[in-house]
Structure formats: C-alpha cells, structure tokens
Amino acid sequence: MKRAATRSKEATHDRIVDAAARAIRRSGYNGTGVADIMKDAGLTHGGFYAHFASREAMLAEAADRAGGESVAMMEQIAASLPPQQALPAMMRAYLSEQHLASIETGCATAALGSEMPRQAPEVRRAATRRIKEMIDLVARQSRDWGQPSAHEHALFTIAAMVGTLVLARAVDDPKLSEGLREAALKQLTPSQD
Fold it and tell me: Could you report the per-residue pLDDT of 51-94, keeping only the tens digit for each?
C-alpha cells in the first residue's frame, strides 16, 4: 500500500514537472504561476508544497526537464546516423519549421535564454548543465572530436543555432524567419568532402 502511494506521488510530481516545463517555455519564468501549473496538471494549488519546497525548486526541475527533452531529441538523431550525417541532421531538425513552431515543447534555451540571468541559482544550474550536454553532444559529432577545436566549434554551433531560432521566432515576417534558418543551415552545415 505504501509503495503504491509512493508511486502515485511520484507520478503526480512528474505531471507537475511536465506541466511546468511546457509552461516556462510557453510563458517564460515570470509568466508561469504555481496555480496555473497545478491546474494544467489537473491538481489543486494546495497540493503544491507536498511536492516542492519552493517555486524555484519547481522551476529548477522544469528547466532540467525541458533541457533534457531537447538533449534527448538531439541524441536520438545522433544515434540513428553515422557521425558525418548526424550533425547536419541535428541542425536541420533544430532549425526546422516544426521546431520553430513548437515553443512549448522545443528548446528551452531558445525560449528562455534571455530570462536566465534573473533566475535563482538552482534554475541557472539546471539550465547550464543541459546546455553543456548539448555542446558536448555536438562536439562528439565533429570530425575533429577529441581535439580542442571540436569543443570550440560546438560552442559556436550551439550559439548560432540557438540565436538563429530566437531571431526566427522573434520576427513577424515568415520569409525573414525562413531566410534566417536557411542561411544558418548553409553556414553551419559542414560541406561533404
């Protein structure tokens, strides 16, 4: 009986974190209220503190979950292709029209990066860890993996991908949005020698 109650509490906690991960990407950290998250999870506001010590603790878990989903999507692409094809495929998926439109389920860094400096240390720590994972994943797909240049190239690649997605989402001109994404892919995609 106790084990079932524990599993139920864990499932409820997981539902709250999922709702929060979507909400922060959709509305930002400051636009995300506990009451709305609990409602989205199908729960009452009063149950929040049975799962989290604070709003910041919930936001840290949400940032970790959202970042983890982005890393997992890229890892899945990398695992399905040879390294020389994986990185261009990862970039095409990241800069795709589908990802552009998927703010609520897409890259947390692109959705929340400008808000990060004003967040609690535990929220920033969670986001930083996931950004480092993404950089490492991109570096591992590099032709010069193991060399310092692979890490430097990955730093630039992630910065360019995230920046492109931010700009492509920011503009209200679909042709400009598409042009930004296409130009980034052209510049970032390594030529097939």
Answer: 888 889 999 999 999 999 999 999 999 999 987 899 999 999 99
Q: What distance in Å separates the CA atoms of residue 35 and residue 28, rounded to the nearest whole number?
A: 15
Pick the CATH number of 56-188 from 1.10.357.10, 2.40.50.100, 2.60.40.10, 3.40.50.720: 1.10.357.10
Q: Report if pTM > 0.85.
A: yes
- CA–CA distance from 89 to each of 42, 137, 142, 143, 189 (Å)? 37, 13, 13, 15, 9
Secondary structure (3-state) at 170 = helix
Among the listed residues 167, 192, 173, the one whose alpha carbon sits nearest the alpha carbon of residue 184: 167
Tokens of 120: 């609690």
- Give the distance, in angstroms, between the CA of residue 52 and the centroid of all CA atoms in the same chain: 22
Q: Where are the domains of the chain?
A: 56-188
